[in-house]
Each structure stands twice: as structure tokens, then as C-alpha cells.
Design brief:
Layout: H1 4-11, E1 17-22, H2 28-35, E2 39-46, H3 49-61, E3 68-72, E4 87-93, H4 95-104, E5 114-119, H5 123-132, E6 135-145, E7 148-157, H6 166-171, H7 173-178, H8 181-202, H9 209-226
Helix pairs in contact: 4-5, 8-9
Bound molecules: S-adenosylmethionine.
């Protein structure tokens, strides 16, 4: 049974898609998609041998080798032209690592019509990458599970130029608009955390002025959105 987090990612995979799941670990996501006949084909990419072998045995156990190929490769290098991948999923990593993976092989993104990303942290940085690479956010979700609040970001290539504001980059254009109870919860706890950070850096023998200013700006941004 798939976690709520991965179930939410799965919901955004189009029917009949050809998916590359990068950092697939056990391959649970592509396996679930194949079992529910939601996809035509998938690559389960893994850079570490242990998880790659887990994916191989999961695919074998479920008899899904006709639909899913496990590949030991770094990031998008797992994708071959002949795969005709149209959807990429990357879940359970930091936003910085996700942007590194997307940056490393721009040519692999050419035929891709949808990215479904689930950063654990660093969502703002990932949204900035999407904006700078003309991937427009089409949907966003928040999922609370195991004491953590996860964000799922769905993006598609855009031919129309667009920009996101500082608010949209930080909070997510759709999440900001929805302002759901789980959104409020996430940002209330982030506000508390940042207020602690600010208190601590102000206690230093030589308080770092630039850092304090940056921290205060971030805190004010969160306060504004929560009010
Ligand atoms: N995607 C699954 C999920 O969301 O439950 C697994 C998440 S797991 C925390 C992250 C996985 O990404 C690990 O198995 C790790 O080996 C893999 N990974 C990290 N960097 C990678 C890269 N550059 N290319 C492929 N896989 C990578």
C-alpha cells in the first residue's frame, strides 16, 4: 500500500503515461501505477545499488517487468530516447537535489509534458528553478503524514512567459490561494522555528547584521501571509 504522499504524486500521473521515476528506491510508485493500469511504461531510476536491487526484486515479485525497467543511473541519465518518457516523478528528496537532477541533463526534458515533484524541503528553490526553465505550476497539494507536511508540485512546460512573486515562490501559487488548515499549520510552525533562529543569532557576541535582516524579512513574509 502506497503512502498518502506517494498516492498524491500518483494522482497527477496522466492515464497511459510513460513515466520516469527518479530516485525510485523500491520502485513502489511505478509498481502501484502499473498495477492500477494507469501507465503504459515506466523507468525506475536509482543511483544507489541497494535500492536499485530492491526495485529489481519488487518488479520481479509483482511480475511487472514488461511495464517497468529498473535502471542504475544518476538522475535523468536513466532515461533513454527510446523510452519516449512524457512524465517525470521525483519524490522524497530535498528541493536542491531535485533541481540538481533536473539541471544535469536538460536534453532529457525535451519530450516531457509533466513534472510531478515532491520536495521534502527547499520548495522555494525548486519553484524558482521551474520558473526559470519555463515550467509552469499547474497544481499543488499538501499532504500531512507521519508528523511531517509534504508538498507536491505539478508543472508543465509553458510557451507563455510568466513570473512568480516572492510570495508565490515561497508559499506556492496554489497553496497560497487555498490557504488550507494544513498550510496554516505548516507556516505557523515554520514561523516559530525562524523566530527561535532569529533570537539565537541576535545573541551572538557579534550579531551578523546581514543575516539578521534576511531572517527578519523572511519572518515578516510569513507573518503577512498568516494574517
Ligand atoms: N522516491 C521514493 C519515495 O518518495 O518514497 C524514494 C525516496 S528516497 C528518500 C530517495 C532516493 O533517491 C534514494 O533511494 C536515493 O538513493 C535516490 N537518489 C538520490 N540521488 C539520486 C540521483 N542523483 N539519481 C537517482 N537516484 C537518486
Amino acid at each position: 500500500n502506497l503512502s498518502q504522499r506517494l498516492t498524491t504524486v500518483a494522482k497527477f500521473v496522466p492515464q497511459g503515461a510513460r513515466v520516469a521515476d527518479i530516485g525510485s528506491d523500491h520502485g513502489y510508485l511505478p509498481a502501484a501505477l502499473a498495477l492500477q493500469d494507469q501507465i503504459e511504461y515506466a523507468v525506475a531510476g536509482e543511483v544507489v545499488r541497494g535500492p536499485y536491487e530492491n526495485a529489481v526484486s519488487e518488479i520481479k515479485k509483482l511480475d511487472l517487468a514488461r511495464t517497468i525497467q529498473a535502471r542504475l543511473a544518476d538522475g535523468l541519465a536513466a532515461i533513454k530516447d527510446s523510452d519516449r518518457i512524457d512524465t517525470i516523478t521525483i519524490a522524497g528528496m530535498g528541493g536542491a537535489l531535485i533541481t540538481q537532477i533536473l539541471d544535469a541533463h536538460p536534453e532529457k526534458l525535451a519530450g516531457v509534458t509533466r513534472l510531478i515533484l515532491q520536495p521534502n524541503v527547499g520548495e522555494d528553490r525548486l519553484r524558482k528553478w521551474l520558473m526559470n526553465h519555463q515550467f509552469q505550476i499547474m497544481a499543488e497539494r499538501m499532504v500531512a503524514e507521519d508528523g511531517h507536511i509534504y508538498e507536491v508540485i505539478v508543472a508543465e512546460p509553458s510557451i507563455v512567459p510568466f513570473r512568480y512573486s516572492k510570495y508565490e515562490l515561497t508559499f506556492g501559487p496554489f497553496l497560497l490561494e487555498q490557504h488550507s488548515p494544513v498550510f496554516v499549520k505548516k507556516w505557523q510552525s515554520e514561523l516559530q522555528r525562524q523566530e527561535d533562529v532569529l533570537r539565537q543569532i541576535k545573541c551572538a557576541s557579534k550579531p551578523p547584521v546581514a543575516k539578521i535582516k534576511q531572517e527578519e524579512e523572511y519572518i515578516n513574509l510569513i507573518r503577512e501571509v498568516l494574517n
